[in-house]
Amino acid sequence: MALLIKNALLVTMDAARRVLRGDILVEGSRFCRVGTIGRNDMLGLSKLSVIDGTGLWALPGLVQAHVHLCQTLFRNQAEDLELLDWLRRRIWPLEAAHDEESMEASARLGIAELFLGGTTTVLDMGSVRHTAVLFEVARATGLRFVGGKALMDDPGTFPGLRELTAECLAESDALAAKWDGAEEGRLRYAYAPRFALSCTDRLLREVGERVAAGARLHTHASENRSECEMVRASRGATNIHYLKQAGLCTKRSVLAHCVWPAEGEAEVLADTGTAVAHCPSSNLKLGSGIAPIPDYLGRGIRVGLGADGAPCNNRLDAFEEMRLASLIPRPRFGASAISAERVFEMATVGGAEALGLEKEIGSIEEGKQADVTLVDPRGVHALPHAPEVYGTIVHSLRAADVRHVVVAGRPVVRDGDLVGLSQEALRRRAADQWEAVRSRAGLGRGPV
Amino acid sequence: MALLIKNALLVTMDAARRVLRGDILVEGSRFCRVGTIGRNDMLGLSKLSVIDGTGLWALPGLVQAHVHLCQTLFRNQAEDLELLDWLRRRIWPLEAAHDEESMEASARLGIAELFLGGTTTVLDMGSVRHTAVLFEVARATGLRFVGGKALMDDPGTFPGLRELTAECLAESDALAAKWDGAEEGRLRYAYAPRFALSCTDRLLREVGERVAAGARLHTHASENRSECEMVRASRGATNIHYLKQAGLCTKRSVLAHCVWPAEGEAEVLADTGTAVAHCPSSNLKLGSGIAPIPDYLGRGIRVGLGADGAPCNNRLDAFEEMRLASLIPRPRFGASAISAERVFEMATVGGAEALGLEKEIGSIEEGKQADVTLVDPRGVHALPHAPEVYGTIVHSLRAADVRHVVVAGRPVVRDGDLVGLSQEALRRRAADQWEAVRSRAGLGRGPV
């Protein structure tokens, strides 16, 4: 199977940041040629499918470095609460009420939105149960998915989700053995202790040993001031320092949020090569704060972007996160705090680096995995265009401008609609399964 | 001419905040019946046009209480600058280079975006010249438009825009005489001293006399800390107090921004009935700050929302401003700082009140002007819906979900496209006129 994308503006995000008019030839799951493609380049290719890119811009498939597909079904159902109340009163009871069917509906709804908005790769944190369902749905839909089971073993954490240390680790190991590298590397595993407060010290250290041996790590850190105070009081160290002691700050680690680094913790992130997943909408919505991203970038810390879960956003829209990543640091760091190009890097090559996938994705380059998002920049809301493409992409374009999306060479969105999936069927399934999980959780229908 | 909108969910924003499934009958420019409409209600109506609202939500046409249509053509061309540099280095030179043709292209491009995103009414500030063009375009396109010529007479202000006090007042008076109340009240005039620093004390006081006699007032205040310091140093009073001394804080006044109220100035706004136009994207993009809107609302101050100009946003999208108005106060005021219903009020009845048009627009009620925006809430990005509609509208819906828009009984958007206007023609015209105005301004094509 080969795919030709013809005559688009290619925003490559390669090392030279080339932006050129041209074509893209995909063979199997990889970019085979990028530039001007003639007939000779296509000799011997059978079954060539073509996307006409005329007038469109081809971007590297967007990377979201922190999402929770298990929560998509809870969108619009957990409003106006700060983090710990939001978890205890709504999210944890709802996660605990998931069964395989509701988990599947949640993941499918989220992936549909991600694809339609141009996101091709996510780093996902599951709930404690039904993690295999997430991998199965990622496998079936074509999403590039790095994910893992949430680990919650602290005796004080939410009873409906708490598991025994050895058992939840054993399940993680089994999931990692089965899924890490599956589908030719499109699926990967990341160990996911939920956050310091929900985990025992023993669990974190045992995960740390796995990370030292090469495993990926995905957790939350320093999202909310109350959380930071509770970690310090109960764990005897500030949050990121505490994670470092457990061996969780490494080149293979992604910490979501990092809104409130304590003294010396930005240095820890930089020195250990730990990546940050920045979630601007979520940090605002839960009243958490505004992460010091320009400071992190200045220290060379790797930063990706993420929408977090649907109930703290309430969208899974990489364009929205890019725009906010540009806007929200400015009152504190100044109007030139962060350039549009730097923001677009966070959503592409930066996100790829945060996930340790920079050799595979994040840019449109021959040999890399063929993840591409084609946007239509001609909407009246985007004109005139900026002198360089990044300003227009970050500040004016929107998810609804996405026309075609390809992951690993496979088209998942054509002409603005999902390939092979009925939105109407997704809607019905989501409505039924939301009602089912809400009912099992014993939560009412009324306002929160 | 009559129009029937059938079988929508009507989010009326009437005093009882009724949300009901039903129909809307429009005769001429006004809502004639709201609720269930039978055949008897339509007896004697000739030329009935029908919009099928099945599955859609009918919202009051959205109101933006602060925009600059004259700047739409400068979108994406004034990046990463704080207010005063942004004005001096980019916006003022470009405004000074406008001719009638570029002004018309700028207004048409902006109005197309406003309509496609569900905005039906704006309070606009023009540039110093070609104000009549803005009214002509509003008349022709069908936008509900309250606007006025920007007044800049201070000897120290930008030379290319500075005018003589008496002359610019005389021109304002002539424009007001011609346009205020035109098109059966769809067009209204607002006197628009640009901001304290660009105006002489005499000008502000003369405008104050007109406001005392019943005129509308639209200006900027306390947007940026440097601006506030310069006003205090040069005018001998803090910004809002200074405007009050000139007679500009009244029930007919709208002050855009009010990000940095000095001691006692929130009380001035409340005591005088002055309205605030909150522009969250713009306040972030120019690094200005985050306005204390929950505090203003708590004092009973009228607050509307606005996108401001395209070059400080870079969109003119009421859904984006609603979402940000909900999100950005939270790190400071808490996650329950402002409810979705309260935000939606700011974009509808609140905006109408800010503009003094609450008897005419802002809600779907019999007798009011028939301004309606029909959105499709069925996108996967919006599901499941919130228990009450406002959460979904503010946090999940987006401009691209707008399907039909009606202003004063006249459809301006049908099936997501402009009625009677070619987007391709708008695009070409905007590109040509941007190139022309840029060239006249002597600004390069490269990055800012």
Compile the SSE list and pairings:
2 copies of one chain form a homodimer.
Chain A (H helix, E strand, L loop, with lengths): L1 E10 L7 E9 L2 E6 L12 E5 L4 E4 L1 E6 L15 H14 L3 H17 L2 E7 L5 H11 L2 E5 L1 E2 L13 H15 L7 E7 L7 H12 L3 E6 L3 H11 L3 H7 L7 E5 L7 H8 L2 E4 L1 H6 L7 H6 L4 E3 L12 H10 L2 H4 L6 H8 L1 H6 L17 E4 L13 H8 L5 E6 L2 E5 L2 E2 L4 H19 L7
Count the beta strands of chain A.
18
The major β-sheet of chain A equals: 9 strands, mixed
CATH third-level topology of the largest domain in chain A = TIM Barrel
Q: Quaternary state, please?
A: homodimer
Query: Structural class, judged by helices and strands of chain A?
Result: alpha/beta
How much is the radius of gyration of chain A in Å? Answer: 21 Å
Number of helices of chain A: 16
Mean pLDDT of chain A: 96
The span between the termini of chain A is 50 Å
